[in-house]
């Protein structure tokens, strides 16, 4: 009986030993699986973080590009507006210069016309004065001639009367 007990004890020991080894193997396998799962989860999280960072970087780059494009468009619009304003100012200046030149030309023409009219008026006045002087001279001459004729007639009459 003793031997059977001993054998039973050995058997139970071997069984428990095997069971312990099996349990250790299962625990190691479960730990390895858990470690692998944790590593995979960490890798997936890192990949997701990297993808999110890349997406954020791309979005920031796109926003910066859009802002730069908008700034360039605004600058071009401002430059075009300034150029148009300068062109309009130049056109207005040219129009004002042309108007001033035309006004000066008209003023000069009016001054020349007035000078010519004054000259003509002076010439007409001089002619009228000369004509009046000539008429006065002619009248004086006629009066003198008439006086001389009257004197001659009176002298002739007096001589005639004296001779009788």
TrEMBL record:
Transmembrane portions of the chain: 6-25, 32-57, 63-89, 96-129, 135-161
Keyword terms of this UniProt record: Membrane, Transmembrane, Transmembrane helix
Protein name, per record: Uncharacterized protein
UniProt lineage: Eukaryota, Sar, Alveolata, Ciliophora, Intramacronucleata
């Amino acid at each position: 009986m003793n031997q059977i007990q001993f054998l039973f004890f050995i058997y139970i020991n071997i069984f428990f030993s095997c069971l312990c080894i099996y349990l250790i193997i299962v625990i190691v396998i479960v730990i390895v699986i858990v470690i692998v799962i944790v590593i995979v989860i960490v890798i997936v999280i890192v990949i997701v973080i990297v993808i999110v960072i890349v997406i954020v970087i791309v979005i920031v780059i796109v926003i910066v590009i859009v802002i730069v494009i908008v700034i360039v468009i605004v600058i071009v619009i401002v430059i075009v507006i300034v150029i148009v304003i300068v062109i309009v100012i130049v056109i207005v200046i040219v129009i004002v210069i042309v108007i001033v030149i035309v006004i000066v030309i008209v003023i000069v023409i009016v001054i020349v016309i007035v000078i010519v009219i004054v000259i003509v008026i002076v010439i007409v006045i001089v002619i009228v004065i000369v004509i009046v002087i000539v008429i006065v001279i002619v009248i004086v001459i006629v009066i003198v001639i008439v006086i001389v004729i009257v004197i001659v007639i009176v002298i002739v009459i007096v001589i005639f009367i004296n001779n009788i």
